[in-house]
Structures are given as structure tokens and as C-alpha cells.
Task: inverse folding
């Protein structure tokens, strides 16, 4: 509902490419600004300068080929490349594109993780073509899964040949920024919102039986509370600096001007929201401006760095 509340007033704005004065919102209640994203650019600071205290594995996420091509010479400090669209099956790459990036990783000593989104039925075939290609080449990188159906499909067809990563979409975290509004009014609910279902032993054992070797989470404004038992815990990754707030199959940008989310995004700010939100395609994100070592759970041993809105 958060996604629809913010994006619905923006559709005429997208079409006109200027401020929408007829959306019916009260002055200063919600401000929406379109900004160009013609290039995914790394911030001026390196990953080691951004997170000097983090000593685990450092990965970088490129959702599309153009982002990778623009920044493949700026990979100092990273040992792993994540490639693929996490939130939209319409952005799935071709087999040749994925193969070229996988070859680049092998030749340049980068580990590789192929990222897949939640999928409709016709999206499964597109992902499967890529997995079949890897299988023919006897090359088995990590596959990040964001869909419960694929979590079942891959082991059934390929056994345990592909190491699977349970993506952040499967974690069911309470990512909405409005949780900050109840911090003082209802502190018990605020603390409870730090939890997610990945510390349920039965679920963790199910994930491990499906071939999952790693869990991934977003950083939350309210912090994260994990109670992992030693007998069923898995390695953990966190994303930085963007955390997803809400996503949907419906894409308002595609409905208004076609599939053009690589070229633009929306910055959204409201007096009722404690932070700015960013809308790209079918997904809304928030951005963590700065985090310290005390904010990160000690179980995290990998960061997935997002140079720009994914």
C-alpha cells in the first residue's frame, strides 16, 4: 500500500515530465522529483572508505549490463560481482550477456553471483535458459533466488550443483520507514519489528535442504534482531546503502512511458515519512546515509554494495 500511495499521484507527472500541480495533494504534503539515471556511477569514496570497519567479503551489485560496462574498471576492493535484476523479470539479461560477465569474473579472479527476481510463469523459462547454459559448461556460480517457486525448481532439475542464496525478498522483513513513527508511542512493537522469520529453525532447515548456503537481509531503520542457533545458522549478507521498502508486479513507469526505468527514478519526500524514498520501476527504496559497526549483526560476513538505486 505504501508503494501505491506514493506512485499513483506520479503517473501524470511521468507523462508530463514536470511537477504535477493537479494531483490533489495538499501543498508540501508529498514532493516528487524526477531525476536522470543515464549512468550508474560509483560514489567518490571507495568501499573501504564507506565501510572501513567491515572486514568481510565485499560484493558489488550490477542489475543490468550497462551498469557493469560503465563501471567494470572501478572494482578495487571487491572480490565478488552480483549481476542480474532483483526486482523485475522484464530486465532479465540474455544468455550471452550473462556468459560474458561470468567470463570476465573468471578471467579477473572475481567470484560471481547471478541474481534472479520473483518470476511469473513465463519468466521461469528465461532464467532456466541461463542455468542450462551454465550446466552445459559445467560452471556453477551462486544463484540468488527471490522466488519460492525457483527455490523448489532449481534443486529438482539440477540437484545440488548450484549453490543457492536466499535473497532479501524472501526474508519478510518489516522494511517500511513509517516504523520510526511508533518508536516512542509503542516501543514494544518497534522492537518486535526488528525480527524476521529467518531465525525460525524449521525454516532454516528447509532452506538448507533446498541447497541454500547463504541468507541475505536489508538493513532496517529500527535495527535487526537475529536469534540464530548454531546448529542451523547460515552465513549472512547485508545490502548497502539501499534497502527495498516495497515492490509489485505493476510498474507505473512502464504503464506511462514504456520500459524505461534505467533512464530515470523518482525521489519522494513527505512530511509523514522520516526519510526520503526512491522509486525505480516497480520498486521503492530507502537509503542509509551512514552506518557504524555497532549497527551490523556480528553474523554478517558479506556486504552487497549498491553503487546506485538497483
Result:
Amino acid at each position: 500500500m505504501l508503494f501505491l500511495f506514493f506512485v499513483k499521484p506520479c503517473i501524470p507527472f511521468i507523462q508530463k515530465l514536470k511537477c504535477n500541480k493537479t494531483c490533489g495533494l495538499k501543498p508540501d504534503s508529498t514532493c516528487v522529483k524526477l531525476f536522470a539515471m543515464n549512468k550508474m556511477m560509483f560514489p567518490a569514496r571507495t568501499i573501504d572508505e564507506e565501510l572501513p570497519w567491515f572486514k568481510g567479503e565485499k560484493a558489488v551489485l550490477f542489475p543490468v549490463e550497462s551498469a557493469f560496462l560503465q563501471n567494470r574498471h572501478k572494482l578495487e576492493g571487491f572480490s565478488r560481482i552480483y549481476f542480474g535484476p532483483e526486482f523485475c523479470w522484464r530486465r532479465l539479461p540474455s544468455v550471452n550477456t550473462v556468459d560474458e560477465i561470468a567470463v570476465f569474473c573468471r578471467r579477473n579472479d572475481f567470484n560471481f553471483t547471478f541474481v534472479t527476481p520473483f518470476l511469473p510463469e513465463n519468466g521461469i523459462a528465461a532464467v532456466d535458459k541461463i542455468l542450462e547454459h551454465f550446466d552445459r559448461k559445467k560452471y556453477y556460480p551462486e544463484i540468488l533466488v527471490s522466488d519460492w517457486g525457483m527455490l523448489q525448481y532449481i534443486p529438482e532439475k539440477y540437484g545440488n550443483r548450484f549453490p543457492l542464496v536466499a535473497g532479501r525478498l524472501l526474508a519478510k522483513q518489516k522494511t517500511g520507514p513509517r516504523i520510526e513513527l511508533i518508536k516512542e508511542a509503542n516501543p514494544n512493537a518497534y522492537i518486535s519489528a526488528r525480527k524476521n522469520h529467518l531465525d525460525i529453525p524449521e525454516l532454516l532447515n528447509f532452506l538448507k535442504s533446498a541447497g541454500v548456503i547463504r541468507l541475505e537481509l536489508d538493513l532496517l531503520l529500527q535495527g535487526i534482531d537475529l536469534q540464530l542457533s548454531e546448529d542451523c545458522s547460515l552465513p549472512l549478507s547485508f545490502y548497502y546503502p539501499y534497502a527495498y521498502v516495497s515492490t509489485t508486479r505493476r510498474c507505473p513507469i512502464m504503464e506511462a512511458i514504456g520500459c524505461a526505468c534505467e533512464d530515470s527514478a523518482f525521489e519522494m519526500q513527505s512530511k509523514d515519512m522520516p526519510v526520503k524514498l526512491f522509486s525505480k520501476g516497480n520498486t521503492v527504496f530507502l537509503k542509509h546515509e551512514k552506518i557504524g559497526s555497532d549497527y551490523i549483526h556480528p553474523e554478517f560476513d558479506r556486504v552487497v554494495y549498491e553503487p546506485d538505486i538497483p
User: Anything to note?
Assistant: Residues 1-36+248-287 form one domain. The two ends are 21 Å apart (CA to CA). The chain has a mean pLDDT of 80.
